[in-house]
Automatic annotation (TrEMBL):
Signal peptide stretch: none
Domain UBC core, chain residue ranges per copy: 13-83
Superkingdom assignment: Eukaryota
Protein name in the entry: UBC core domain-containing protein
Organism of this sequence: Escallonia herrerae
Amino acid sequence: MILIDVDQALSKIACNRLQKELAEWQVNPPVGFKHKVTDNLQRWVIEVNGAPGTLYADEKFQLQCLKPVSSLIRLSNLGLLQS
């Protein structure tokens, strides 16, 4: 698991951008995905439904998406959380 250094704060621009993305996600989430609320704007926990017609059809998975402090242009770190 990757931990975010709490001493590194998001810039105002980055914070506003993440808040906007989160608001858009909550209004119009991608099909099969659900954002679970956390107390950290940089750490998103996303619940994903298993694809229909597959071995995973009735399963739910949790992904952790960590947004980098240094640059929102860089890719987020994704990981599967254990249930």
